[in-house]
Structures are given as C-alpha cells and as structure tokens.
Write a structure and sequence with these properties.
heterodimer; A: alpha/beta; 6-stranded mixed beta sheet; B: mainly alpha; 4 strands; 74% helix; globular; disordered C terminus
C-alpha cells in the first residue's frame, strides 16, 4: 500500500527521565518503536506507561534524555501536541475521538475538511473518501453501517476502528492506542485487534497499551514491560511464548509482593 | 413491525418532518374550525408579516442551542438595536448607516457575550441573562423610556426593500427570513463553521482534540447570533414604523419554544433549521388560529401548551433514539457475550 519507510525507527527514546517534583516517574528509560512495528507496552497502574506516552505525544517534555522521531532528533523546547501531529503521531483515546451524534463521514474529516474557497464542505468528495477508508484502510464490515450512519449506532470496537482508520488515512506514522479494549466485550476486542493488524499491514507503527497480556501478545512484534518507571523487560515476540510471558509477569509480580512484605 | 420500523427510519431522515406534519395538521384543523378565515389568503399574508422577526431570532438561536449553549439576550437586542436604528435615523436621517449600526450593535452585544463565555468560562445561561437585563436597562436609560415614531422612513428605499408588499401582497420580510433560513441551513449543514458547531455541541473535548478552535468558534457564534437579532430588530422596527422601549420583551419564550418543537436538541450536537422554521410559524399562528376558530382567546395558552407538548413528543418518537437503543441492545446482548465463555484472563496485577 504505502511506500517503504524511509527511516528505521518511528520513535526512539534514549535515557529518558521524568520527575514530577521529587517523584521519579521514569528512570533512564530506553524505548524504541520500529518503522513498521507493533510494540505492546505492559505495566501495572502507576508503572509509567502513560507518562511515557505523554512524552511521545508531546503533552509534556521529559526532565532528561533524548528522543528521535523518524530518526531525527527532537528539540523538546518546541515540541508539543501540535508538533507531534505534524510528525505523524496520533493517539486514539477510548472515548475522546468521535462525535457521537454526528455521521461517520463528518467524523473522518472534522478539523481537516475538504472545502471550497468559501469554506463550504464538498460533501460528496468527503463521503467517497470516507467510504474508501472504511473499506480499504480498515476493512470495515459492520452490518448496515454506512458513511451516513451516526457514531452512536456503532459498537465500541467499531468506533475504535473508525478512529484508527482516520489516523491511518491522514498519514499517521505512529498510532498510540491507550487501553483500546478496556470495557469491550470479547467479540469487540477481536475487532479492535483486527484493526491493529491493519496498521501493521499499512506499514505504520503502533504502540499498544493494555492490561490484557493475551491481547498484547496476539498482535505485538515486541513487548516492553514497565515497572515503577523502569523498563524491566524487553522481549521480541519469537523470544518468548504467551505462557512464558505470563509466567514472567506473574513471577515478577510475586517477587515484588514478597519484597514489599519484608 | 419491520415495516413500521422502516417507515420510522425513512421518516426520521427528512429533516423537520414531524414538525411539518404538526404544522399541516394544525392548519387543517383551523381550516375546519374557521373555514371563512383560513381558506382566504389574508390570514396567511398576516402571518408572513408578523412571524418573520421571531423566525429570524429562532434561526439564530438554533445554531447557539446546537452548540450546546443558550442565548437569552436576543430579546434585549431587539430593543437595543431597534433604539440604535431609530436614533441614528431620526438624528441623521441616514437609513443605511442606521441599518448597519443596528446590525453592528447587535453583533457587539453578541461579541461581549461570546468573550465572557468562551474566554472566561461564564456559563452562557447566566451570562446572557445578565446581558439581557443590562442592554434592556441601557436602552431604557438612553431613550428616556419613550417610544419614537419613525414614520419618515417610509419615504426611503429601505422600507419597501425589507417590509414592502411584493406585488402589493406578499410581505418582503417573509422572503428575507426565508433567504436567511436557507443560508443558515447551508452554514450549519454544509460549512466548516457549522460542523464545528455540531461537534462542539456534541462533545467539546472531541472537537478540541480534532483541531477545532472551540473558543474562537463560540465567540463567532454568539457574535453571529447578536447580528441576526439586530436584523430581526430592524425588520420589526421597520414594520411597526415605531420604536418602543419594551419591544421584543415577550419574544424570549415563544422563540425558544419554536426552536425546541422544531427538533433541535437541548443537549446540543443536533439542530434543525427546517424544524425551527416551521416551529416559528406554528407558534406565530396559534393565537390567530384559536381566536378565529371561535373557541375564545382564553384558550390560546392551553392550546399552545398542547401543540408544543405534542410536537416535542412526536419528535422524540419519530427520532432515532428508539432505533439506536434497539441496535445497541442487539449488539451487547447476552447472546453475544455468553457465546464466548470468559477464558482465563492473563492479567498482570
């Protein structure tokens, strides 16, 4: 579909540290996402997952460390959410991505409408492209769902699909999915996982944050385990089985508990 | 059941259909009750003469309510802009400067509302309530509580242009308000600005994340509504060839009723210009209709209440709420969930 990527890493972080006051949220974190890689980010609440993500998406800068986007070094002074968008980094939020009462085609183009000189929207053109995104980019096969359907008719998984498809169409190179399957039924989770596979097929990169190890294992090329602000493990998918990963995490969690108990 | 649902869906697709139905049923009832009045053209011409100012206000308010906000200050703009128009005309004898300053004063009221609401975060209901009192009060102060006759304006072109009788029959203001309705329909449904309004009313966080400038859009929206109210003020003042301090005072509730019975959602994110158009004509014809039907003027309010209640109910029933609930039920049903027995969860705690 898309041309070969011109860079090795969609994002690469080196020795990133982040303090909130005296509290250390991230400690010498090294984290990288290949140009066409799906990275599963695993960790307990408070492990530093969202802090890491917020640095990537430009919400706040780190205290120390370097970051490279598409192999180019980023100056944190002029890096923010808007710049992150320009660099092709998009975040898909659980419930902040779509206008519920609006038609699908409007949701695809809000904020970047195709208009004539007076600002009037070229509806037919937008609908055609929206249709294409739904069929080609995300392989949407919802029953009875068209570009004229309103979002509140879609299931939770389908909504994630629309948001992912939109990000892909508008040339996101790295799509961050923050707990996309929280509060979804199992069938819906499968839909979302299929959409994530489309990201891979579209030669884009993805960071997938989830509590559910089996989901992460199913679609990720590699896994990064964060704990208390530190990267405690980094596996390639072929280095470890789902069972092995599960056992590692359990052992790790138990080790922690024992340590606390003493 | 299937066909019923199909009909409901099809009917729901035509904008403002429920309220159109109410309008034509109402007119049918009036024709039956008072055939002598309602089969002639005169009563309709009088509606076309009296309804436009309120219709224009309802159109502007539709956009504001679609954005999830409210504007209660438009009735004060009717007085304030009417005052500006009459004062400038009487003092300088320049109808066009008076016209543009009247529009500008309305826009100024809206702009100040917009600044307070968008930049400082004052809730729109409080902000516009306060500004309603303020601008009304200022008008009373400035004109000294008097009403002014502006008969001299009849000899200027502006009078026939906006409120003349086309072919000696059709009030020009009805065409101006119709034109405005068409323009605002396109703005709301086909323009970037309207789409921003829809998304802000739907969920301002989504709008912001998707790159809509929420603050600027709100300021523009309230300014536009002030401008539109200024136009309504000119239409009213020209038609009456008179300015009085309390003009517009009784408009607030009827105009809001027109918008709501037209199907615009108070929750925001959904608005119907067509609905407000028919809503305004329904509200505007009730009194005359009830009186002409011979059931007596005391009944007017009761019938108004009935018609409003019926329209809003019809909107809900024919709207998509039910259909949506049905689909959601189907998708998240026990059947789908129970099919996959919960497997062992690999959860890292």
């Amino acid at each position: 579909m898309a041309a070969e990527n011109q860079y090795e890493y969609a994002v690469r972080m080196k020795d990133i540290e982040k303090y909130f006051g005296n509290v250390m949220a991230l400690k010498r974190v090294n984290f990288e996402v290949g140009a066409n890689e799906v990275v599963g980010l695993i960790g307990d609440n408070g492990a530093g997952k969202s802090t890491l993500i917020k640095i990537i998406t430009g919400v706040f800068p780190p205290t120390k460390g370097e970051m490279y986007i598409r192999d180019e070094k980023i100056s944190f002074k002029d890096y923010g959410v808007k710049q992150a968008h320009k660099w092709g980094i998009e975040t898909v939020y659980q419930d902040k991505s779509l206008g519920e009462k609006q038609e699908l085609w409007r949701n695809f183009f809000i904020g970047r409408q195709i208009t004539n000189r007076l600002g009037f929207i070229k509806v037919r053109e937008e609908k055609e492209i929206a249709q294409k995104i739904m069929l080609d980019t995300i392989g949407f096969r919802g029953v009875g769902i068209t570009v004229d359907s309103k979002v509140n008719k879609l299931s939770g998984g389908e909504r994630q699909g629309v948001a992912i498809g939109r990000a892909m169409y508008f040339d996101a190179d790295l799509i961050v999915l923050d707990e996309p399957t929280a509060a979804l039924s199992l069938k819906e989770v499968q839909k979302v996982l299929n959409f994530v596979r489309k990201i891979k097929e579209g030669r884009k990169a993805c960071v997938y944050i989830s509590h559910n190890i089996s989901d992460v294992y199913e679609i990720s090329d590699s896994f990064v385990v964060l704990d208390r602000g530190e990267v405690v493990a980094n596996f390639k998918r072929d280095e470890i089985s789902l069972k092995g990963l599960d056992e590692f995490l359990l052992k790790y969690a138990h080790g922690e508990k024992w340590a606390k108990g003493r | 059941m299937k066909t019923v649902r199909a009909i409901k869906t099809g009917v729901g697709r035509i904008e403002g259909l429920p309220i159109m139905m109410v309008y034509f049923v109402l007119m049918g009832l009036f024709i039956m009750a008072a055939p002598r009045v309602f089969t002639g053209y005169r009563i309709y011409m009088s509606f076309l003469q009296t309804v436009p100012p309120q219709l224009v206000l309802a159109l502007g308010l539709t956009l504001v309510i679609t954005a999830g906000e409210i504007d209660l200050s438009f009735s004060a703009v009717i007085a304030f802009s009417g005052f500006v128009f009459s004062y400038i005309f009487l003092t300088f004898g320049t109808p066009w400067i008076a016209f543009f300053l009247a529009l500008a004063s309305g826009a100024l009221v809206g702009f100040i509302n917009g600044l307070l609401i968008a930049k400082i975060g004052v809730p729109s209901i409080m902000c516009t309530l306060a500004s309603q009192f303020f601008w009304n009060g200022l008008t009373i102060l400035l004109c000294g509580g008097l009403s002014w006759n502006i008969k001299a304006i009849k000899s200027h072109f502006i009078h026939p242009l906006f409120v003349g009788r086309i072919g000696g029959l059709v009030p020009a203001q009805s065409l101006w308000s119709l034109g405005l309705a068409v323009l605002l329909w396109f703005i709301l449904n086909r323009h970037k600005f309207g789409e921003s309004i829809l998304f802000i009313g739907d969920n301002p966080d989504v709008a912001r994340v998707m790159g809509v400038n929420v603050e600027t859009t709100k300021i523009k929206l309230f300014t536009l509504n002030g401008l539109i109210a200024g136009f309504a003020a000119v239409l009213l003042t020209l038609e009456m060839i008179n300015f009085w301090t309390t003009q517009g005072a009784g408009f607030l509730l009827p105009v809001m009723a027109a918008v709501f019975i037209g199907g615009t959602s108070i929750a925001g994110g959904q608005g119907s210009i067509v609905g407000s158009f028919f809503g305004a004509y329904i509200i505007g014809s009730l009194e005359a209709g009830v009186v002409a039907s011979g059931i007596g003027g005391y009944w007017t309010r009761l019938v108004s209440g009935l018609v409003m209640g019926a329209s809003v109910t019809l909107n809900v029933v024919l709207g998509k709420t039910k259909e949506k609930r049905f689909i959601e039920k189907l998708r998240s049903s026990v059947f789908v969930k129970g099919f996959f027995k919960q497997e062992k969860q690999y959860v890292h705690n």
